[in-house]
Amino acid sequence: MPKIDDSIVPGLRLPALKKTITQRNIDYYSGVRPHSIHTDPEWAKAKGFAAPLAQALMSTAYVSQMMTTWLGQGFVVGGKISASFIKPVLSGETLTAQAVVKAVEQIDGRCYVSVECWCENSQGEKTMVGSASGFSDHIRQPVLSS
After folding, report:
1. Structure pTM?
2. 109 found inside a domain
3. Domains: count for the chain
4. At a CB cut-off of 8 Å and minimum separation 6, what does 24 contact?
5. Please, which of 1, 17, 79, 129 could form a disulfide with 134 given CB 3.0 to 4.6 Å?
């Protein structure tokens, strides 16, 4: 039976993922259409936003990318994300996806890691908070100490 990797402990920080949200990224994700707060700058301004908004699920995609980079197949097969979106993300902002290990357990003879995850804008404000988890059998990147 594989043992739990002793290097994965609560408090361990994953390598962060930084992304600048361009209007082109938003357009690809949303599909360009008129009267949309995501792809129509004038409509977004008319609705009270300084710029078009990124789709909230884009933040989840960045956390998923961070987890897949760290866990590989261990996240792709059997991984989970739960997220709450707490602040809009505007076109042109830079988001940083981050995570810290909260728990490590053995499930069916495999090491299962749960993390607290979040995205922050360049002002350090959280825009998304949540949790993610997956198997650590295939960790591909070193983690950073907290």
Report:
1. 0.86
2. yes
3. 1
4. none
5. 79
Domain of residue 59, CATH code: 3.10.129.10
Please measure the distance between the N-terminal and C-terminal CA atoms of the chain and give it in whole angstroms: 29
* Token digits of residue 79: 């991984």
Show Cβ contacts of residue 1 under 8 Å, excluding neighbours closer than 6 positions: 109
Domain assignment of residue 49, yes or no = no
State the DSSP string of 5-32. Answer: -TT--TTPBPPPEEEE--HHHHHHHH--
Please give the chain's pLDDT, 146 residues, in tens. Answer: 445 667 789 999 999 999 999 999 999 988 888 899 999 999 999 999 999 999 999 999 999 999 999 999 999 998 999 999 999 999 999 999 999 999 999 888 888 999 999 999 999 999 999 999 999 865 544 555 44
